[in-house]
Write a structure and sequence with these properties.
This protein is of the alpha+beta class. The chain has 17 helices and 11 strands. It starts with 11 loop residues before the first helix and ends in an 8-residue tail after the last helix. The model is unreliable at about 10-15, about 70-75, about 75-85, about 170-175 and about 440-444 (pLDDT under 50).
């Protein structure tokens, strides 16, 4: 069944009259809790209005609402945008969000917020605050940095954590927390043109959520600016770092991946959900200064902050991991129609990378495949991982980026970068001997 965009779609009447009455069974898989709430409310509203003379029994209504289940993430993000052309290009860049506080809840509860953003026309959860316990006025004051890919809306949902074991989802043991509030903020040109923080208050049924937002355009956020301090690791060429460390893979990559394997490989939305910005910056500073307590920080920090630090390292390399020089060839190679020619080209390009780049890429690739093997638990498929890491590993340095790239061309460029990484993720395991004929080995 085609993906249903929302409860107000043209197929609405068909769904109501056929999903319950038919001998067939239908299940709606929704990546957005916001949409799931809309569906439930619309079903209840239509039931009260007796749409087209159709009256559902309590059991039938429960069956239909039960079909609107929560899918924690879109398993296979599309390789083309789901947006209509007339909707506009949306915003590309980074959205900085501070979830400050909320008020108006009727009784004390353990509360947290999540942020959803539309990416290529599909809403996915991008961030989650900590749980603020036993309060009617939570004070989160947490900042997140969320990548926007043609995005037009950010949605905020407030939940009450469920401590009732009877509410555990029978399939995956997921606690179905209660949504107490939802609201959305349009990402318009006013926000795009402002360079300062904008204050916003979302309101629903007497509950108010205060937040601050600031947008950084792709022209600024995608710059690979070299660090002025060559003694650190962020913003420093990978060859310089590995030579200084006498290693094949930078220490920051090895340590982050080690901790992610320990605690994050089964975390739902790992690499997709943003970590708290202050935690990421603190860990970055510790790696840059070679702080002695970096290992302790790794064990204490939220796992999404560690994943965010790893992504930040690759994003801030002065040159992409797969290099500026080979960038056009990677895009051309993955587009070859002949499978044999494509494989020969893509493997040859890996052999052409500098040794630190190739070693690090293979090390990361091996890890990402392990993450994808746990898709049933973490909901991160190879498509999702390629979407997250493809542009980060391939995006050219600032001197390679045209100053005025049309939005549709920009979107096409990102999709092509995603396809490159997706090719390697779906390729049979790559061994060092296949690439370097025993001259390249995996780091331990």
């Amino acid at each position: 069944m085609e993906r249903v965009q929302g409860p107000e779609s043209k197929g609405q009447g068909w769904c109501w009259s056929n999903c319950v009455r038919s001998v067939q069974s239908f299940q709606f898989l929704l990546s957005s809790d916001y949409e799931r709430c809309e569906w439930r409310e619309t079903i209840e509203k239509l039931q009260r209005k007796d749409v087209q003379g159709l009256v559902l029994s309590s059991l039938e209504l429960q069956m239909l609402m039960g079909s609107c289940v929560k899918l924690r993430t879109v398993h296979n993000l599309p390789v083309i945008s789901n947006k209509e052309d007339e909707e506009g290009a949306g915003l590309w860049g980074f959205l900085h969000v501070i979830v400050r506080s909320a008020r108006g809840f009727r009784s004390s509860a353990s509360l947290y917020c999540t942020l959803e953003v539309d990416s290529f026309g599909y809403f996915v959860s991008k961030a989650r605050t900590r749980v603020f316990r036993d309060t009617t006025e939570p004070q989160w004051n947490e900042e997140f940095e969320i990548e926007l890919e043609g995005s037009r809306w950010v949605r905020v949902l407030c939940y009450e954590t469920s401590l009732d074991k009877l509410k555990l989802h029978k399939d995956d043991n997921e606690i179905i927390d209660n949504v107490l509030f939802r609201g959305q903020l349009q990402l318009d040109e006013t926000l795009a043109q402002s360079k300062s923080w904008q204050q916003a208050t979302l309101e629903m049924d007497g509950v108010e959520v205060d937040m601050s937002v600031k947008f950084t355009s792709r022209d600024l956020s995608l710059k690979r600016t070299p660090s002025r301090k060559q003694t650190g690791v962020f913003g420093v060429k990978i060859g310089i770092v590995t030579k200084r460390e006498r290693s094949k893979v930078p220490y920051v990559v090895r340590q982050c991946l080690e901790e992610l394997v320990k605690r994050g490989i089964d975390e739902v939305g790992i690499y997709r959900v943003s970590g708290v910005a202050t935690d990421i910056q603190a860990l970055r500073a510790a790696f840059d200064s070679n702080a002695k307590d970096v290992l302790l920080m790794l064990t204490d920090l939220d796992i999404h902050a560690i994943a965010g630090t790893l992504k930040l390292y690759f994003r801030q390399l002065p040159e992409p991991l797969l290099t500026d020089r080979l960038h056009p060839a990677f895009l051309q190679g993955v587009a070859l129609s002949d499978p044999a020619a494509r494989e020969n080209c893509m493997l040859h390009l890996l052999r052409s990378l500098p040794e630190p780049n190739a070693s690090t890429f293979l090390f990361l690739l091996q890890h990402l495949k392990r993450v994808a093997e746990r898709e049933a638990v973490n909901k991160m498929s190879v498509h999702n991982l390629a979407t997250v890491f493809g542009p980060t590993l391939l995006r050219p340095s600032e001197i390679q980026i045209p100053s005025a790239t049309p939005s549709h061309a920009w979107s096409h460029e990102i999709m092509a970068q995603v396809q490159v990484l997706l090719y390697y993720l779906q390729h049979p395991p790559l061994t060092a001997s296949e690439l370097r004929r025993n001259s390249l080995t995996y780091p331990m």
